[in-house]
Design goal:
Layout: H1 2-16, H2 24-48, H3 50-56, E1 62-65, H4 72-78, E2 83-87, H5 91-103, E3 109-111, E4 126-131, H6 142-154, E5 156-167, H7 169-172, H8 179-187, E6 197-202, E7 205-211, H9 215-224, E8 227-236, E9 241-243, H10 248-251, E10 254-261
Parallel strand pairs: 1-2, 1-4, 2-3, 4-5
Antiparallel strand pairs: 5-10, 6-7, 8-9, 8-10
Helix pairs in contact: 2-5
Length: about 260
Amino acid sequence: MSGARGASAQERQAQDGVSPALEPEVAQWYAEKYYDVEDEVLRVFEPLETPILDRHIANGMRVLDAMMGRGRHALRYAGRGCAVWGNDLNPHMVALVGKAAEAAALSLTLTALDARDLRGIEDGAFDVSFAMYSSLGTIPGSAHRQRAMDEIARVTRQGGLVVIQAHNRLDTFFERDLLAAALRGQFLPREGMERGDILLDYHGLKDMRNHLYTPGELKESFERAGMRVVEEHYMDYANVRMIDGTFRKLQADGFVFVGKKA
């Protein structure tokens, strides 16, 4: 019986395209808990992904953090004089970012829009748009993830940049702790799930769902949204370093792609 309930939950998430972290009974708890969780991973991601954004975001640029979580990047670039629009579907998360911005005397626009439907934002409104820390992968269903990518591209100006970070599916086959889940996700996905989807208990949140991309899959998603990938960065989380070389696509725990809108 419990397996049937689990399958129904996954099917509903795939149909709706909504992460379990946004279920009403956990959304506020997750928003508050996320501050503690992200503090634990900042030592890894801050020195890896943030310098990539820094190279492309300059004072005065119009910037969209499309799935901002606690808003660490939105707040960072608001503090650097950018016109920042920070967005997250979890309204509790948005409220916490608003409090942080007020405490730091920072000005930015905050919304709780679905990344698949950024209504109210004009075409080409931003110079640089991004979704970091595998936030795009938390959207259940490939069609829903592509809609979000299409929307992020839509609101980015022609010649502007879109930066996406994702966790690497290929690396999980070499990780002892993730191998079983990776094999199930690749060859025996549960009903309502797709190849590359993974379910993990994440800091108290049961069955947290994320889609692990392959580099080719993410590149194709950029292209389908009318963008050309101009940079690929491969990250080793365990050793907090970037990876180069022939086997980087297999060795990397995750990657950041930068796409240019045609």
